[in-house]
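Quick one, T. Sequence first:
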Amino acid sequence: MQPSPAVPTAAAAVTWRPLSAARVTGGFWSGRMVANRAAIPLGRERLEAAGNLGNLRIAAGEASGDVQGASFRDSDVYKWLEAVAWDGSQPDQLAELTRTIAAVQRDDGYLNSAIQVRGEEPYTHLWNSHELYCAGHLFQAAVAAARSTGDTALLKVATRFADHLVDTFGPSGRSELEGHPVIESALVELYRETGVPAYLDLAKYFVDARGHGSATKPGFDPSQYGDPAHYSDRVPVRNAGPLEGHAVRAVYFATGATDVAIETGDVELLDAVRRQYDAMRRHKQHVTGAVGSRWDGEAFGDDYELPPDRAYAETCAAIGVLQWAWRLLLATGESSYADQIELLLYNAILPAVSLEDADYFYVNTLHRRTGARGDVQRAPAYGRRPWFNCACCPPNVMRTLASLPSYLATGTADGLQIHQYAVSALRARSFAVDVDTDYPWDGLVRVTVTEAPAGEVELALRIPEWASDATVDDKPVAAGDYAPVRRTFRAGDQVVLHLPMPPRLLVSNDRVDSTRGCFTVARGPLIYALEQPDQHPGVVLEDLRLNPAAEITTAHTDLLGGVTILKAKGAVVPEALEPYRSHSTPSADPVDLTLIPYYTWANRGLHAMRVWIPAG
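Structure tokens:
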């Protein structure tokens, strides 16, 4: 049974609580989790080859030599260990590396292999050293190990480090802040697991201290390290407007601030992060759910700056938004956050990994041009890659897929809320159900009660905002909310949800200049794309147009492991030899278009692809 990465305390201000028992038992997500499980040993091999594990062994005295790479290399190991813990298939790996990590730790609790081997003074350049970022991922891995296996050896390492941080930072200690947030949410989760109030207090301090330039002093050189906004350090979170700067840092920090708000009952802080999430969703989120518009600084852009071809859309940023949305869902019980989780899982996180779960995108473009060439290692023009010199994304995907069951449902004192539809077994106290479905290809969902209490309980089913004409037990229900079914259940009772899935056309706000006059095609929870291999031979993808007035049909095929494809009508416009021409309506020949789920693109080699299709 799957424990949860985020478990608010009994005193936390939440509407719903994670389940203690959730399993994916078949269907679509089972296949992805099985592939992820097979990829976890490959992650170990790649961490070995890249030197991350060697760095820890050198620092532990188990090997000799010089450490490789930047001071944040340990974090990749910790994320991978978290995946190992949630997956549960390799306890020996967890035990082995825990012993090495414990041997690295200094007597005062500090731990960072690169800093220690190089003899550097800790915390002298926190804006760029990622020391607390590494600590945060260590804490999350330790919590995962304790919850999933009962092994607390890594948790002991984490609490020693956390005690050191409590003694070092805060109102009576050092005032500098880590340049890359994640320590905030990690400290809160460590508090939830151990009950030590000092960890929550330090997390609250880090949240309230940020926004005053504390992450960019002393010794900060703006010409080298950029604007404080890059570090989410320009404006205090309670007063902040739209998210800005480095996308991953911003959403990780917002996640930590949300955790602090939940555990302290801070309504003002919760309102602030909710405003920021809403502004991000409305103005700075790609149609796939991904965030990040600028390669420069891996950053959010201005409002409505959402270019599909230059989208940065980093995988880690999508995972951070998922974590943030989950906490807001727990806090508020609002279905819009579960809608966001669905969008992110299928269209911002899943595209980052190949169908075999062996190769990864760091950057998730929405348009790969014909003949595109990459200029840096992480460029999606290369296709997915086994690893990166900055390898934050692959182990992040691994830990997210390994912990997937925890995002399916929540519970209350007298009910169960199902947020994501997967073949699964779910339990909230004495109320247990099995879910059967062919989602995301089909919108029929059968929920069968396997155990129920004596009195009335409520089963709440999310009706996605895209699901017009949905029914529960043949009765119409409203989209964009939960459909509650409250009664006395008995084992064997069924509730049947039907979510119609006709293809639909999406358009962007007219302020998004780069996609004005274009359409995205969606069906159910999936965003679709054109990819070159599926189009007529000899037709260049950039010359294709979509006829928005024509019918779009569906067909389930064996293509790409078994997917539902869409057939649309369009036109091919002859290539213009000049970059600009006098305005006229170009001649066009009718052509059939085939669209595949966006997450499956780039699994057949390097080809042109686009999500936004011009009308014509």
